User: Fold these one by one.
Assistant:
Number 1:
Amino acid sequence: MPHYSYEHTFSANGVKSNQEQAVMECAWGILTNVDISFQWGTSRRVHVHLDEALHQIFPTNPNGDYAFNGYTIHVTGKYELLPSTRKIYLRGWNEGAYDHTIAVAFEVLPKEDVYAVPSAIDNLRRLWERMLYGSRLS
């Protein structure tokens, strides 16, 4: 499974209305296991979010952002990336007086790896129904 790692340094004295962005190229599939690391000293002054094109992925609340000090947030949610995009964006701003670097790492799983389990469960359900009720059910 592809695993990616990127960093971006946000310039000091930024504002929300003029956000910086880092383009993070990746494979098509299911985005998951996202780690966003904030250095000590950011004092919750660096605000970031992950987007695909113009759509915000994480955090899932549309106007939300992450801002921590010396902390790595781990997001286990899953998001299906568009086949045509093949990139996501780290967007944000730094309200602090000094530049700060944010590190991002994430995995992209093939769709079949994520959807294989529900399909296997569905196959077992059909088999169980056939055993109980005979082959008249599909």
Number 2:
Amino acid sequence: MKHHPNQETEIRIIISFYGDNYDPAIVTEKLKINPTKTWNKGDKKGATSLVHKDYGWYFALEKFYLNELSICLFQMIELLEPKKNLITELIDQYKLDAVISCYVVPNRKHNPDLFLDNNLINRIAALNCSLDIDINV
């Protein structure tokens, strides 16, 4: 599924949980997914002087080199749907925001296909997740 990076759009898909008062390790324990990164409120953001205003947990799929966003999103949805009830419990119990983020870096020769059909949108909504799409040009 991963094509040559010089020919396709680079796409990254991430699921994140943010909240004011929870231990990010709880997400790992409940979902049985090892996070790509976690942080605590007050932790520095990388090498900057900025600090995180909340607690956070995220998991990123490997980068995709494709021109169709829906194919990439589908893989995250397939991973998360069996855990839908656990995700809802986490969101409700700890008052978390859950976001599926898509970071798109288009290849200059190809415009990415960002079309999302109703089925895919409904599946994301059923997970109680917001959707964020960032295009870096």
